[in-house]
Amino acid sequence: MRGNGINRVIAGLVMSASLALTACGGETEVVEAPVEGVIDGISIENARMVLAPVEGNPAAIYFDFAYEGDRAFSLGRVQVEGAESAVIHQFREYNLQMEMQEAVPISVSNGTELEFKPGDLHVMAMEPSADLQPGGSTTVTLKVSGGDTHEFEAEIRAAGDER
User: Fold this and answer.
1) 106 in Cβ contact with 90 (< 8 Å)
2) Euclidean distance between CA atoms 161 and 41, whole angstroms
3) Residues lower than pLDDT 50 in the chain
4) Does 122 map to a domain?
5) Within a domain: 105
6) What is the span of the domain harbouring residue 83?
7) Do 62 and 118 form a contact (C-beta atoms < 8 A)?
8) pLDDT attached to residue 22
């Protein structure tokens, strides 16, 4: 009986080895490396920067944000190429008046959809460079908890253009 048990183990090892060799002779599995500056599951649409009527005043950035991913995170910081600094703002009621304030970190999980739009969530790009001109574009970088970043391009529009 003892010999049968050993024979079964040896037979199992031989079968496993032959399956592994067969797999090696087949197609190679391609594993895509993560793209730097992109968080899997985030999609950004309709991104645009609207310049202020007075050169040098803050510009506003609007976009549609959606997330379909496995990992939850917080969205709280932002960077805009060509601006001295940038902040996510939100309109809120304070002292019985609506005013623009820096947004608290925004919780994001699978299925989150956010609209960064006039009168609500938006990004303010402070001290935008004179190089940022209508018809061009700029890179916006969202920074999330844990240190990951997601970059996207925003079309630059003049002050009077559609927001």
Assistant:
1) no
2) 31
3) 1-2, 4-23
4) yes
5) yes
6) 42-157
7) yes
8) 45
Of the candidates 56, 43, 49, which has an alpha carbon nearest to the alpha carbon of residue 163? 49
pLDDT score recorded for residue 160: 83
Residue 53 Rama label (left phi>0; alpha psi -120 to 50; beta): alpha
Q: Residue 99 has which token pair?
A: 């005013």
Cα–chain-centroid distance for residue 68? 11
Close Cβ partners of 33 (under 8 Å, ≥ 6 residues apart): none
Q: Is residue 95 part of a domain?
A: yes
Q: What is the CATH number of the domain that holds 88?
A: 2.60.40.1890
Is 72 inside any structural domain?
Answer: yes
- Virtual torsion, Cα 37, 57, 52, 153, nearest 10 deg: -10
The vertex-131 CA angle with 130 and 133, nearest 5°, equals: 90
Q: Are strands 149-157 and 42-50 parallel, antiparallel or unpaired?
A: parallel
Task: List Cβ<8 Å contacts ≥24 apart for 144-148.
Answer: 144/39, 144/73, 144/74, 144/75, 144/76, 144/108, 145/73, 145/74, 145/76, 145/105, 146/73, 148/39, 148/73
pLDDT in tens, 43-88: 999 999 999 999 889 999 999 999 999 999 999 899 999 999 999 9
**Residue 129 and residue 138: Cα distance in Å, rounded?**
11
Number of domains in the chain: 1
